[in-house]
Amino acid sequence: MNLTAVGIKNIRFPVKIREMAGGHQATVASITLQVNLPRRFRQNCVPTFLSVLKKFQNDISVEIFPELLREVKEELQAESAQLEMTFPYFIEKYAPITKTPGLMEYTCRFTGSTGHDGDDLIMSIWVPSTTLCPCSKEISDYGAHNQRAEINLNVKFRNFIWMEDLITMVEKSASCEVYSLLKRPDEKYVTEKAYENPMFVEDAVRKVAEAADNHPDILWFSAGVESFESIHKHSAYAEVLSDTMR
């Protein structure tokens, strides 16, 4: 009997991710790697997985994923191989008024597969943002409730896209961006910006979808926005899936 999937799941592994500014950023990824093995193959595949990961660990980007997967597939004589790599990624971001520097953390993921149908690759990001309720603003005499939200974008692409560019694009799609460090002039700015830019999760996810749809190098995307409501026990959520590959 052929095994549908053999592999390792949620192994934490040190890697270095290519940065848009040049160089590499050291981080720790959670990795799930699996292959579809033919019936005749019984060798323990874990050493092969770890050996290939170690070979590529100092230069990780979505560009090298197909090569990494093909090497795993060939080493194990497998029919297909899939890899998912999730990691925290840090970008220095300056406060909007005082320009105070701080490190923002974003969750990113590369998901790839190779098999009879060729290679497939998805880049995913999760971006913290702020949403302010339009309904609350309309009916309240003293302000409006706002909350932190998280925007998820998953893309397949025609030409290479930097994660930093996708993050910047997504951050423009909510009531206001989130910063790691703010002083009083900055707090005034972000509070007033959100108030002047009220948005339901449906509005935010439509803006993300519109930006992704207009990007010349994005072939396919899915987007979701979750708002961690400040006056409700539940979260609000909306998502958009592109119709077809472009």
Structure report:
With 246 residues, this protein is an alpha+beta fold. The chain has a single domain (3-241), classed as Urate Oxidase (Roll), CATH 3.10.270.10. Helix content is 26%, strand content 43%. It contains six helices and nine strands. It has helices at residues 46-56, 65-75, 134-139, 163-171, 184-195, 201-214, and strands at 3-18, 24-37, 80-94, 101-115, 118-132, 146-157, 176-177, 218-227, 236-241. Strands 1, 2, 3, 4, 5, 6, 7, 8 and 9 form a nine-stranded antiparallel beta sheet that branches. Strand 1 and strand 2 (24-37) form a beta hairpin. The chain is elongated and about 70 Å long. The chain starts with a strand and ends in a 5-residue tail after the last strand.
Short description:
This protein has 246 residues and is α+β, with helices and mostly antiparallel strands. It contains 6 helices and 9 strands, in the order ββααβββαβαβααββ.
